[in-house]
Amino acid sequence: MREPVLEIKNFHVDYGLGADAVQAVRDVTLTLHRGEVLGLAGESGSGKSTLAYGVTRLLPPPGVISGGSVVYHSPGGSYDVMTLTDAELRKFRWAETSIVFQGAMNSLNPVHKISTQMLDVIKAHEPDLSPQARTARAAEMLKLVGISADRMDAYPHQLSGGMRQRVMIGMALVLQPQIVIMDEPTTALDVVMQRQILAQLVELRERLGFSVLFITHDLSLLVEFSDRIAIMYGGRIVEEARSSDLYKDSLHPYSEGLLKSFPALRGPRRELSGIPGSPPDLRGMPTGCSFHPRCPHAFDRCSTDIPLLATPSSRNDPTRSVACWLPGRTPVA
Ligand SMILES: Nc1ncnc2c1ncn2[C@@H]1O[C@H](COP(=O)(O)OP(=O)(O)O)[C@@H](O)[C@H]1O
Ligand SMILES: [Mg+2]
């Protein structure tokens, strides 16, 4: 296994305080390794964006981080992102980690040329770079994402949606960050474009060596492009595995349901059936395993005890973990 670059441990996020607080992220422990593409999948409302906003400390109120640590291992040393000052955070966010959030392609400023917007980012974070070096960096980055030099002076409205999206990836990479987080970087429905972006990121990652956390509700995309996948349900990670293992041999009934909800682009065909019922309402979270009301295999214990994520007794493999009470899926006692 490669060395860790971001270690999220026992991370909790609530919306609101006190008795009315909604528990959106619960006890998430997740590690991103250097140079890997880690996919995070789960239905809408499972807490994926809340986790991404939380670990980068961009959570808007009433979001509150109510526990956990996020250790970032930089070439210069390791530190807990939760303890950074505002000034340190600003540097961490662009230079070390860059984030493209849901709907980001609409966040390009319509009145400025894309070259200007890119140069502004470089100028703000690397003020010592000469104007020539900045222009060269911007041009190089746009070329890398497939935008030719003659389009550099275009305004956002002069570009197609796909090109604007590539500009956003270029912006995210222009400071050569260690970590790139993409949270459903196109609209929820536009999976074709997400696929293009993910393919491009995987290719760039090989050349530039950054790590990617790619968030989507579409598991089939991740099966195809990511090294590992974490599945989120009701604010918790319920399964984590190498993509190929998850696809061939998923252990959590929810992962199984998600795999059957999206047509796979490669590999053997599966019957599409989806998951009956709907995601839990955080205000009235089911007791025990929050998936139990929708689970075809649930038994008594599932409605009373919360299963913790751990390596299951039936798979002697530390790269696999699952949170489920079914036989063989509980940890070795
Ligand atoms: N500002 C907010 N106030 C209260 N609840 C919120 C807020 N934002 C998100 N939530 C709740 O947190 C849960 C997780 O949301 P989110 O992280 O956006 O999920 P995902 O990205 O997986 O779709 C949802 O149930 C949502 O209703
Ligand atoms: Mg989201």
From TrEMBL:
Keywords: ATP-binding, Nucleotide-binding, Transport. SMART domains: AAA. One of its GO terms (biological process) is peptide transport. It comes from the Bacteria. The keyword Lyase does not apply. GO terms for molecular function: ATP binding; ATP hydrolysis activity. Residues 6-259 form the ABC transporter domain. It holds the Pfam family ABC_tran. PANTHER family: MALTOSE ABC TRANSPORTER, ATP-BINDING PROTEIN, OLIGOPEPTIDE/DIPEPTIDE ABC TRANSPORTER, ATPASE SUBUNIT. Belongs to the ABC transporter superfamily. This is Peptide/nickel transport system ATP-binding protein.
